[in-house]
Amino acid sequence: LSATALGLLVWWGAKGVIAGWASLGDMVAFILFLNMLFRPLRELADKFNTLQMGMVSSERIFKLMDSAGENLDSNTGTYTETTRKCEIDFENVWFAYKNEDYVLKDISFHLPAGKSLALVGATGAGKSSIVNLISRFYEINKGSIKINHRDIKDYELLDLRAKAGVVLQDVFLFADTIYQNITLRNPDITKEMVIQAAKETGAHDFIMRLPDGYEFEVGERGGMLSAGQRQLISFIRAYVYNPAILILDEATSSIDTETEAIIQYATTKLTENRTSIIVAHRLATVQRVDQILVLDHGEIKERGNHQELLKQNGIYKKLFEMQFDRVVI
Questions:
Q1: What's the CA gap between 293 and 308, in Å, rounded?
Q2: Are β-strands 150-151 and 291-296 bridged in parallel, bridged antiparallel, or unpaired?
Q3: How far apart are CA 130 and CA 299, in angstroms?
Q4: Residue 55 has pLDDT above 90, yes or no
Q5: What is the average pLDDT across 121-137?
Q6: Nearest to 306 by CA among 296, 297, 322, 293
Q7: What are the backbone dihedrals phi and psi of residue 200, each rounded to the nearest 5 degrees, phi first?
Q8: What percent of the chain clears pLDDT 90, i.e. is strictly above it?
Q9: 285 with 278: CB under 8 angstroms?
Q10: Residues near 243 by beta carbon (within 8 Å), at least 6 away in sequence
């Protein structure tokens, strides 16, 4: 409408200027008046768009608030335990997100207490699905998952999930201080505990170099920190809560070169004498783990430690050669 009105005005005004009953100044003035007329109309249209986006967002929020929550089956138990030693068994586990389109097929492995397990494979092989099943974020279709020889369905859900500390690839930090992002406002965690955990994981020095140390405001989603620094904060967060089971889900894939050595040290410290599951694309992070499972399309294709898998001359060795530029062409 604005463009059409402007075109008509120029056409009519030009005729008037040529005919002599209007001046060039009159035509320019009316063009400015036309812009003044349409500016509030455009702003109203923009506000309407904003209102529509707000309505869609609020609809999603209310839908989430009205949801019934987790619908776990009646087999959810009440068993709890305080032991810090956890061994994990997957026994013929089949799992599908939808119908019978299985993403995990007949998965079986034993992870002794205090040992480490690495899950390696291409994207979509089922690595993250395995770690999500341990905390019962999804229910398996067939088979069983056991912790300390007891089915996870026997455990009280909060107790089960309290056993596992998860460090993700995409670290979420709140617009708060480093200290509060580590403790998550848990009053049982003191500042001395946080400082000790930071020293143990090798992150204390970088924190103290920041303007306010542990009281440094990290900004929305940790925008004031680098990717590696945000990852270190998540490592301290996991360490200070001292979980019985540690899960690192691609936790080292987004780090920068500067903090890679610190991250490697923190990983070693976190997994020391702790039942650990490491999901990784970067094979440099899994060479020292006790057991490696190579997954492909939801199935375990190879298993063993780093040296054993290299000798098998299979999928793992090909991945290793690709990452370390040892492929012979």
A1: 12
A2: unpaired
A3: 11
A4: yes
A5: 86
A6: 293
A7: -65, -35
A8: 12
A9: yes
A10: 162, 163, 164, 165, 274
